[in-house]
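Why does this matter for the project? Reviewers at the last site visit asked to see concrete outputs rather than summary tables. In response, this paragraph embeds two records directly. Each consists of the residue sequence and, immediately after it, the corresponding structure tokens. Nothing has been edited or filtered.
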Amino acid sequence: MKTLEQFPELSPASIADAMDRIKSVVNQTPVMTSSTLNELVGGEIFLKCENFQKIGAFKFRGAYHALSKLDADQAAKGVIAHSSGNHAQGVALAAKMLGIKATIVMPEDSTPVKMEATAGYGATVVKSTADARERVSAELAEKHEYTLIHPYDNSDIILGQGTAAWELFEEVGELDYLFAPTGGGGLLSGTALATAAKCPSCKVVGVEPVSGDDAGRSWRSGSVVELEKSPKTIADGVRTRFIGDRNLAVMSRYVSDMTTATERQILEALQFVWARMKIVVEPSSALALAPILSGDYQINGGRVGIIISGGNVNVPGCGFFH
């Protein structure tokens, strides 16, 4: 296992530098609360709504931060990324804003709204199977000398993602717990760094689908655990097979706990946020709330932050117009 000392750029203090770099570009997203939710879970819940971020997800933060730090030669040659959707859109929009050519490798079963938006921002979309996207990206990067903007195992991506939690602490003050959905670990590790800087006593908890608990297994074992196939889950934004070395290094030092949610729990949390709070979020966002709402994870009356990661979902009935 690689240690955090091998990634000196990944320090809690570095989140402040990332915030300074991107704060004039990103949306400062709202924090939403619900008295009904508080009563149900026996605590005080604060939802950091990154579904109101540019491209509808927190991924824009990391993408813009990473692309803004490319040197002139890298920017001239262009970038490549692989993603099921939100990282794809984030890189595509950031590249458009910075005048950089972007190629995105997307799984064939990506949510249509995410694929259409990625192309709409001007990126070249290359389709592949979910399990082949890393290989296809590497081949294209070598052929065209593109810079790979990895969706989570990239220090500048991690630092950019951490700015969402940084903002949350500035908006609501100290918290007892902070939950984040976890796929590759970019959001969780960035959140953990921001928490270490802004509220060291706060416990950071990563949440995964039961079918894709590689990050939790990695965190517990101290080495990266790789799944044989991408997990089958409604939470399409976290369908990763393994986390990165950087992510595990940060998580090992700054994450307090890892937990999971079943598909039913994710759907119940999604239904609550949509129907009771009237907020359009994607299943990956509901993932972070699911273990709390189900009662599986006890928060003991605490003040709890939840990173709502995005809101890119297909609109029901939109096919009527075609």
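We now turn to the second protein, recorded in exactly the same manner.
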Amino acid sequence: MGRILALPRPDAVIFDFDGVIVDTEPLHYEAFRSVLWPLGIGFTWQEYVDTYMGFDDRDAFREAFRAHGRAFDDLRMAQLVAAKSKVFLAAVRTGVSAYPGAVPLIRSLHAARIPLAVCSGALRSDILPVLERLGLTACFPLIVTADDVRKSKPDPESYRLAFRKLALLHPSRISSPDRCLVVEDTPAGIEAAKGAGMTVIAVTNSYPGEALALADSIAGSLEDVRIP
């Protein structure tokens, strides 16, 4: 356990998914590799962390093809996204680990009747099986994914959409974006949430604290976070 970070009760809490709730980034990386390597396109783990981790699948494939000077169209996009998702889901079925403190925090917030949402650059089909395996499906009646937006993080579109949907679900409880707490792990995610006017706590699961300095607060682990 690190230093306890006690936060005031927010109107709602919005969780990023990969890198916040579950340790699936290595699975995504290997799925990208398995699809791209036969095409002569690849990147190292460090390149994935530095460049691709904050992207949704569509922008990751666009960047990989651009970086290698290769042509790319909508048909190829659809084929690659589907192939990568198939590989990823096969890996998930062998088991996936939640980050320390994530599941207890989510369940405690749900029990306290604080509205919750997921806002992720992953596909809905990638997220739902993992939530089911972790027993968290009922905690998240609202999930915003790459399927729902045109622009991925760091664009604020996904978080603005999450706020609008939360406000529709809880019109008497959701007052303003800055009263919503976002839990993020990447610079791109923090930029997106701040661009939507939200308060952000960053967790150092994927990046060191100095890379997450735009967040309002930083925790070493969700085990250290307390929300009344």
